[in-house]
Every structure is written in structure tokens, then in C-alpha cells.
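Table S2 (text version). Query chain:
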Amino acid sequence: MNLLNLQLSALLVLDPLSVILPFLWIFRLEWRYDAHRIAGILFGYLFIICGLFLFFLRLLPGFSRHGLIWSLLLMAFSLSLCLLLTKVKIQAAAYTLFLFKNVSDSASLLSRFLTVLITSHNPSIPHTACVRSLELLLIPAAVLIITAVIGTRLRLFLSHVLYGYGAYLYAGASP
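Corresponding C-alpha cell output:
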């Protein structure tokens, strides 16, 4: 297995995790199962996602990780999984998942932009390896920063909007 295949495998695991793990952390009080069961379910989910990607990669000639079909499948499966693992309403789950999907996509676009800047000054650097390396650095960093900055506030906001003012006070915030 060469470096490009290893980076692609890591990105296939990182894509759904960068959306699901912040969701599970923000709504950790709403879990249906304990941490061991959730970890096992996530492992099985990642195995299925990687298998689906490889299946579609062989089936469809122009299939890529950044394509619309893959993004739609990934979000549909992620939303289903989050609804299975937590007691959160579908509106809150969809809003949070799309928020973190946008953050990871923005980090991916930033890595492509930086790759263009880097490879334009030094053309000997392989383009694909540089993009994937930067994605492996920037996606987790962006998701961690956004989760740390807005995580608690997002949970309070969603409980206020979806469940009313009483749930907002119940969540531990003052008016």
C-alpha cells in the first residue's frame, strides 16, 4: 500500500468522523447507549462506509470523494446513524450535521487553495499527496476549533429553539 492509498483510506474514515464525532460530543447527554456500544456501532458504520465507497468506485468510473452522490449518501447515512444513537430531534441533528459538514468541506477547500500556492512555487511537490496531507491536518483542526468555540452554545441554542424556554433553563443557562 503506497502513501496515496493510505491517505485516501485515512480521509475516508475522517470524512464521516469529522461530522459525527462533534455531534455526539455536543449531544452527549442525549445518548441512547453507553460509550462502548456507540464505539462499536461507529466502527461498523465506518467499515460499511469504506466498503460502499470502494463499491461505488469500481461501479462508477468518475466517482470521487468530493462528488455530490457521495456527499448525499454520507449525509443520509450519518443522519440516520445520529438519530439511532441519540434522542435528538431530526431538525437539530440535520442542522448540526450540516454545520460540521460545511466546516469540513471548507477546510478541504482551504487545503486545495494552499496546495495550489505551495505547488506553484515548488512544482516538484506531488499535487495529490500535498492536498491529502493538508486535508488530514486542516479538517480535524477546523472541526476541533469550531466544536470548542460553539459546541456548548449550539446545544443550548438548539434546545431553546426546539424545546422552548424551559428546556433552555433546564440545560443550565441563565436568561
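Notes on Table S2: Residues 127-163 form the longest helix (37 residues). Confidence is low (pLDDT under 50) at residues 166-175.
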